[in-house]
Amino acid sequence: MSGTASPRKGYGGLQMNGGIGSSNVTWANAKAKSDQVNGYPSFSTRNNGFFSRRARQISRSLPSFVRGAEQEKLGRGRWYPRNGSKAGRILGFIGRTIWRLRIRLLITLSLILAVIVFYVTRESNGRISSRPRLKKPTAMHRAYRRASLLGGGSQFVIILAANQGGGVMEWKGPREWAIERDSVRNKKKYAKKWGYNLEIVDMSTKKRYAHEWRESWEKVDTIRKCMRKYPKAQWFWWMDLNTFIMEPSYTLQKHIFNDLSSNTYRDINDYNPLHITHPFNDTKLDPEALSPNGDGKVSSIDLIIPQDCAGFNLGSFFIRSSTWTDRLLDVWWDPVGYEQKHMEWEHKEQDALEHLYINQPWIRGHTAFIPQRKINSFPAGACGQNGEDQRIHYKETDRDFVVNMAGCEWGRDCWGEMYNFRELSNKLNRTPWEKFKDGISDRIKAMKAKPEGKEGKA
C-alpha cells in the first residue's frame, strides 16, 4: 500500500477530507440538495422584485388580529381605544361611526351651510367705494324673492302716500310725525323682506293748474308716474299713510294673487252698499257688458277694490299696468270732469271712480272686488254706526293682513290707534325665543307682585 490513502467517495461528490472533487460541485448545488432533503424551501434574503421589497411594508398596513402576548407586544407605542379607558372606547366608536357616515354627514353639512349663506347674508352697510359709487350687494334670499322668474317680488310696487311737506291747511305736530314714521318703517320692512318695490310719495299739495288746488287728487297722477318709473312691474298697491301691515309674514302672491279667482268677486251684488244696478240692462251692449262677471277670466282683472260700509274704499287697493289702466287713469284725472263734479264728490277721487263705475260699461268688465278684511280691515271706530261688522272690522283671531285707521282724524285718536295696532302686531309676530323671554319676564313680574299684594293687605 502506498503512503497516501486513497480518497473515499463522499456525499454529493464531496471528499470526506473537505476537499473539492473533480465533479466541481458548487455551494448552490449543495444548498439545493439540502433543501430537497429537508422538505421545504429556504428563505432567500435577496430582494428580488417589487413585491419582495415591499412585502413587509404591505403586511404592516394590513389589519392584524393578534391576541395575548403577541398583541401586547405589537401594541407598544400605539394607541388602541379598545384596550384603553371607557372614554377612549367611546371616542373610538364615535370616530368609526363618523367615518362610516362621512358621505351623509358631508351632504348634511353642505345643506346647512347653503341655508345659512342663503338666509344670513346681509347687505353691506355703508358705501363700498367712494369713487365710483357701487351698489350695495343684495342678500341672497332677497335677490331670490325679487327675481321675476323665482320669487316674483319685482312684479309688485307698493305706493305709500306720505305727507312729508306737512300739507297746506295745517302744520304737522309730533303725533302726525310719529304716525308717518311708524307707517313708513312698517312698509319699508315689509317690502325689504319680500323683495317688493316701495315708492314713498310726498302728497303735499301741488298747484297742478293755475286756477286750482287739487288736494288729495294727486293719487291718480302719482300712480301714472309710478307706472312709468317701473315699466316691468305688473301690480301697483296703493296704501294710505294711516294703514299698517299687521302680518308681515304674508306675501301678496300667496295671500291674493296665486288664487285671484277665489280671493276676488266680479259681481258687485255679493256686497253692494251703494245699491248699484248690476249688470246693465241695455240690450245694445255686448254680452260681456251684460254679464255680472264680465268675461269671467282672471287675466281681464285690472283693478281690485275693497268696499266698506259706504262704498268703494281706496285706502288700500291694487291696479295693474295695462292699456285699459292707461285709459282709466286718463278719464279719472280728466280736469273737465273734476271742474263739473268736484263740489258734489265729497270723497273726491273715490267718488269719481264710483261715478265712472256706475255709468261706464267698459270699466265694470275689468274691475273686481276683494273682501274688505283681506287688505283693508277697519278698527272698531270706523263704520261703527251699526256695531261690529264681520265683513269690515279687524279681528285678531283671524290675523287680518292690513288695518286702515280710516277717518281717525275726525274725532278719533290716530296716534293711539296706530300705536295699539303696532304693539299688537309685534306681539302676534314674536319669534319663539321672544315668546320664551316674555314668558319668563311675566312670571318674574307675577312673583314680585304677590309679596307686594300681601304687604298691602297686612
Outline the structure in words.
It is built from 18 helices and 9 strands. The chain is α/β, with parallel strands linked by helices. Helix 7 runs parallel beside helix 17. Strands 1, 2, 3, 5, 6, 7 and 8 form a 7-stranded mixed sheet that branches. The chain has a two-stranded antiparallel ribbon with strand order 4-9.
Helix content class: 40-55%
Backbone CA Rg: 45 Å
Low-confidence stretches: 8-22, 74-78, 124-137
Number of E-state strands: 9
User: What's the main sheet like?
Assistant: 7 strands, mixed
- Roughly what is the average pLDDT, rounded to an integer? 78
Helix count?
18
Calculate the terminal CA-CA distance, rounded to whole Å.
Answer: 149 Å
Secondary-structure element pattern, one letter each: HHHHHHEHEHEEHHHEEEHHHHEHEHH
The dominant shape is: elongated
Structural class: alpha/beta
Strand content: 5-15%
